Each structure stands twice: as C-alpha cells, then as structure tokens.
C-alpha cells in the first residue's frame, strides 16, 4: 500500500513507489492512493494540487477496510499536503487500533520540500502527528528537523527512524543509522556508490523497507535489505523525462543505464 503525491515524470512519488514495490516484492499486489498531483522537474519549484478531499477520504477509508480484513501487510506514506493530513492521520489512527497480526506496519517518508524547491508537505505540527502515528520514519537531513527536540516522544510512541547519510562516515563511504524505539542504534556503513544523484531515492528506500516489513522481517533486516537494493539500483540509472537521472522504471521497461544518466 502506497500513499503520496503523483509525479508524472516517475522520478519520485507514487509511480516510483509502485515501480519499486514491483521490483522488490513482485508477487505482492500494490494499492495506491494519491494525496496530491504535482508539477515538478527541470529545475522549477514544485507545485501540488490536492484532489477533492472527499475522494481522498473515500479512498483512504477503503484502505482501512482492506487493512481490517488483513489484506494489507504494510503501508508506505510519502507526500501528504496539509489539506490531506487530517484524512491520512485518521487512517493511521484506525490502523494503530488493529491488533497483531492484522495491523500493517507503516513507513513514513516525510516530504517537506521538493529537490528543486517548492513546499509540498504538511505543516510541522501535522507532520509530527503523522510521525508519531507511524512505525518507521525515513527523513532526509532537512526533514529530520520535523521532530528535532521530540525524539523522546517519538520513541515513546514506538516509532523508529532512519538517519540517512550521517556525518563522519569517512571519504568514499556513507552511513545510515537506524534508531529503534528502545534507544538502540544500528549503523549501515558501506562504500558510497559513485555517479549522479538520482531523484526519488528517498521514495524508493522507504518503499523497499515497507516491502521487507510486509514479509514479516524485523526493522533491522528490512533496513539492511532495502539499503542494499537501493545501492545496486543506483548503478543502473537512466535519464528521465524531466532531464534528471532516474532509477529504473517498471519491471520490463527498456531503461537506458549507466552513462546515459550522467
């Protein structure tokens, strides 16, 4: 289950989430709900439009019903505009009320701004509420500020988070750090993948993580597998319709790889 904004270029958002899930967990069906339609790419500040809120709520209510029936194993949430934040939070509250093993695990990849600029996400207050209702948060460095100073509350709510590209990894290396609700941390130090920085890596990583959790894996195992998958995927880029390097498209697509994205 993926919830977020629709980026028609496929570089990020729901298309990137869906393609990632198809590659990482090809036997699992994907259900998607769009919280926004976006216009982004080619260096322009991004813009977003929220579909009719009644439509968004109806789709999220359908997701809740599917989850209550045990048909959804994990949920990945990306861009949630302020206008849709209440509806998404209502869904997360509904999911949290489910007992195991029915309750799906929720991975939140908060979106505050697009890579080319432009505000897209919920207000800081709404974003924090969404974080506290999830199981895992995967912010970038800027989005990490959404819960800076609230780490104790986040852990008390049973929420883990993944700090990406933490400082001090050393030349030619990169380190992500998973912080668990009990305060334990697990670091994933590895060689940095050379080459251009593609769009949508945050979306892809969070979705791959959700796929691992859908298999019943621990947070540590799902994180390790998702990081390894993304590192390999970054070695096979192509140029997207927005002129930026993209990860590969859907399975079976004839994406050019390697130097064509440089």
Automatic annotation (TrEMBL):
Residues 249-262 have a biased composition (Low complexity). It comes from the Bacteria. InterPro entries: PM/HMP-P_kinase-1, Ribokinase-like. SUPFAM superfamilies: Ribokinase-like (SSF53613). It holds the Pfam family Phos_pyr_kin. Residues 238-262 are annotated as: Disordered. GO terms for cellular component: cytosol. Signal peptide: none annotated. Residues 7-236 form the Pyridoxamine kinase/Phosphomethylpyrimidine kinase domain. The keyword Transferase applies. This is Phosphomethylpyrimidine kinase.
């Amino acid at each position: 289950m993926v919830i977020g904004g629709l980026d028609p270029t496929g570089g990020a958002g729901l298309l990137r989430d869906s393609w990632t899930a198809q590659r990482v967990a090809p036997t699992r069906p994907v259900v998607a709900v769009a919280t926004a339609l976006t216009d982004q790419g080619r260096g322009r500040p991004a813009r977003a439009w929220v579909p009719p809120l009644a439509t968004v709520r109806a789709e999220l209510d359908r997701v809740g019903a599917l989850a209550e029936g045990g048909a959804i194993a994990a949920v990945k949430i990306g861009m949630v505009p302020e206008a849709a934040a209440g509806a998404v939070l209502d869904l997360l509250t509904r999911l949290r009320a489910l007992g195991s093993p029915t309750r799906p695990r929720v991975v939140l990849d908060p979106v505050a701004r697009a890579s080319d600029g432009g505000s897209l996400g919920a207000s800081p207050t709404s974003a924090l509420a969404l974080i506290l209702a999830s199981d895992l948060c995967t912010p970038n460095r800027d989005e990490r500020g959404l819960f800076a100073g609230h780490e104790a509350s986040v852990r008390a709510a049973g929420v883990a988070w993944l700090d990406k590209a933490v400082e001090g990894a050393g030349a030619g290396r990169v380190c992500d750090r998973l912080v668990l609700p009990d305060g334990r941390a697990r670091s994933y130090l590895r060689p940095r993948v050379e080459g251009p920085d593609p769009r949508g890596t945050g979306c892809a990583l969070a979705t791959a993580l959700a796929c691992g959790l859908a298999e019943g894996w621990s947070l540590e195992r799902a994180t390790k597998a998702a990081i390894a998958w993304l590192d390999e995927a970054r070695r096979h880029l192509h140029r997207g319709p927005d002129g930026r390097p993209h990860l590969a498209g859907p399975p079976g697509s004839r994406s050019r790889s390697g130097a064509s994205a440089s």
